[in-house]
Amino acid sequence: MASTKKTTKVQAPVDERETFLSLRKSFAENEQDTQEKLRTLYELQEADNEIDRIVQLRGELPDEVASLEDEIGSLKAKCSHLEEIIDGYRQNIEQNNAHIGELDSDVDKYNKQLVNVANSREYDSINKEIENTTLLRAIAEKNIREAREAIEAKKQDIAKISDRILIREDDLQAKKDELAVIVESTAGEEEKLRAGRDACASRIDERTLSAYERIRSSVRNHQAVVGLVNEDSCGGCFSAITPQRIIDINSGKKLVICEHCGRIIVSPEM
Ligand SMILES: [Zn+2]
Questions:
Q1: 2, 74, 214, 245: least buried by Cβ within 10 Å?
Q2: Is 175 exposed, middle or buried (0-12, 13-18, 19+ CB in 10 A)?
Q3: Three-state DSSP class for residue 43
């Protein structure tokens, strides 16, 4: 029985800027490993393509749901801010009412003093106090009136915003229902695809996976692994490939990276 020598490779830490090019030297130890790895990457890409197709069915709905939720959230925050302002005005009214109460009792006191005045100077001075107090009372009443008007205005603002919230909540519910129908009809398929995808991803080392994800998220068609188109061009960016590289691609045993877009190009046989 052949002895199986176990080697533990020291993994370099995952670099977030990793590309397939930077991994080229450490991609695989031999052609067989390269072939296996390319096949796994290709499988992963196929699974991701299928998942993307399902996600695309949902179209703009998830974004629309999220932005409606944001909008409703900010409208509600606006309403509660207005409620706080109204509370402030109510406190202001209470304070002014209390002040009016004090002023009224002052006037009562002065009126009683008027009955017992000793001379006209005292009489004038008390009357002056009454006049001042009446003026302060009028100011307090004016403050109350203004606060009540402001409350009414803020209440109208709240009513308008509340109407908008209701409309947006109806929109949101409709979009959510629509999305739920689509998600439900594809949930089983998606779950199976994701399980397959995860199994595939678990067979790929972290650095390669990181490069794969990075390229996938940076390119428009989300393809990090592509085939040839018209037998001589990169399936990702459509640049022409040299004949030697086409031979390498078709061998299925060499890692070929597009010089223009950085995607891995694999044999159509895969
Ligand atoms: Zn390319």
A1: 2
A2: buried
A3: helix
User: What are the tens digits of pLDDT across the range 150-205?
Assistant: 999 999 999 999 999 999 999 999 999 999 999 999 999 999 999 999 999 999 99
Q: Report the first-to-last Cα separation within the chain, whole angstroms.
A: 34
- List, for residues 40-75, the tens digit of each pLDDT value: 999 999 999 999 999 888 889 999 999 999 999 999
Q: How many CB atoms lie within 10 A of CB 1?
A: 3
The reply to whether 154 and 209 lie within a common domain is: no
* Whether the predicted model's global pTM rises above the 0.70 cut: no
> What is the 69 CA–ligand 1 centroid distance (Å)?
39
Residue 234's contacts (CB-CB under 8 Å, 6 or more residues apart) are: 226, 228, 241, 258, 260, 261, 263, 265
Cα–Cα separations (whole angstroms), residue 206 to 14, 16, 166, 196, 209: 7, 11, 48, 17, 5
User: How far does the centroid of ligand 1 lie from the alpha carbon of residue 57, in Å?
Assistant: 27
- Centroid of ligand 1 to alpha carbon of 166 (angstroms): 49
Contact between 234 and 228 (Cβ < 8 Å):
yes
- Look up the domain containing 118 and give its range: 61-199
Residues with CB under 5 A from ligand 1 (ion): 234, 236-237, 258, 260-261
Q: Tell which of 172, 199, 226 closes a domain.
A: 199
Q: Are 209 and 77 in contact (CB under 8 A)?
A: no
